[in-house]
Amino acid sequence: MFTKALAASVTVKTRLKGLQYFNAGRVVDISGAEWVANGVVRGSRDYRVDLVRDRSRFTGACECPFYADRAEICKHIWAALLEAEDRNLLAGDGPVGDDAVLEPEYRPTPADVREHQEASYAAAGGRTQVVKPPAWQRFLHELQQDVAAAEGSVPLPRFSNGEIVYAIDVRGTLAGRGTIVSVFFRQRRKSGAWTKPKPVGITPAEAEHMLDRDDREILSLLIGASNAWYQTAQYEAGYPRLSRYVLNGPLEDRLLPMLARTGRAHLDGTDEQGLLPISWDVGDPWKFQLEVTSDDRNDTIQVDGAFVRGAERMALREPVLLLSRGFLFTRTTMA
């Protein structure tokens, strides 16, 4: 995590604001590779951010007035760095050391400062430059801008260019701690085929702004079921974006049918390769039927059983997973 090593290069106030922007989904676009990344961060308007890595030295530039006036790392740059780290950009040739540093792309020289002062003096008609507002007034102005930006912008749904996939981990669930559900994301290729689903961590703010109504409700319940968001410091940059959740009790009753009815539920960890898509079985519940027969010729008693539903009969070996809450999974359905 390179942002942890770079934190000493940025003021606490800037890191806190940048983290808030990151959590709110204000980084609406980012792309790049191992050494360069470019993003767009939504503030009072959209600002372009450029990031460059040279071994353990990082530089950043932003279009915002704060950066233009001060040539200091701003909250938009820090938010973009957090997003780049989350998407494995700027990985360079490996982890950074404790000597890693983050600097603005440029710093004004004395000549630049003098030129700026002369330009301001000329713009004022040769009069003495206006006195700089007091610190408290500047603080209130910045606060007003932050509030207006927060109220006036809604984060662009991060996963709008693909779909969320839910997978029930069969082997993990059989361990007995609860039903393990993993969240994946996949996109369409140009050919129309889906890419391989990849695990994805989602924040509460991102869940709230999902385009699909089912995803909004499911992900909010999953995230709410995990207390990791509340066990970690509110402003710690490294707190978890979970992709695996453990369901127990009534939460299984509520969420498992919802997952199946999305048409995007799968089983993972079966004998088959990859994810197995499953759908909700709309029929009546299956009932377990104990079968005891005797063999007079061998003087033995055979004990067996099956799942039955009307005239239908399912062998005991057919389900791949049975839950104590009453759910039965085959390779194609949840019942």
Task: Please explain how this structure is put together.
With 335 residues, the protein is of the alpha+beta class. 32% of the residues lie in helices and 27% in strands. It is built from eleven helices and 17 strands. Strands 6, 7, 8, 9, 10, 11 and 17 form a seven-stranded mixed β-sheet that branches. The chain has a five-stranded mixed β-sheet with strand order 1-2-3-4-5. Strands 12-13-14 form a three-stranded antiparallel β-sheet, with no helix packed on it. A hairpin with a 4-residue loop joins strand 12 (287-295) and strand 13 (300-309). The radius of gyration is 28 Å and the shape is elongated.
Work out the helix count. 11
- Helix content bin: 25-40%
- First-residue to last-residue Cα separation: 43 Å
- Indicate the structural class: alpha+beta
Morphology call:
elongated
Instruction: Tell me about the largest β-sheet.
Output: 7 strands, mixed
Q: What is the number of E strands?
A: 17
Give the rounded overall mean pLDDT.
Answer: 84
Order of secondary-structure elements: HHEEEEHHEHHEHEEHHHEHEEEEEEEE
Rg is: 28 Å
Unreliable parts: 229-239
Beta-strand percentage range = 25-35%
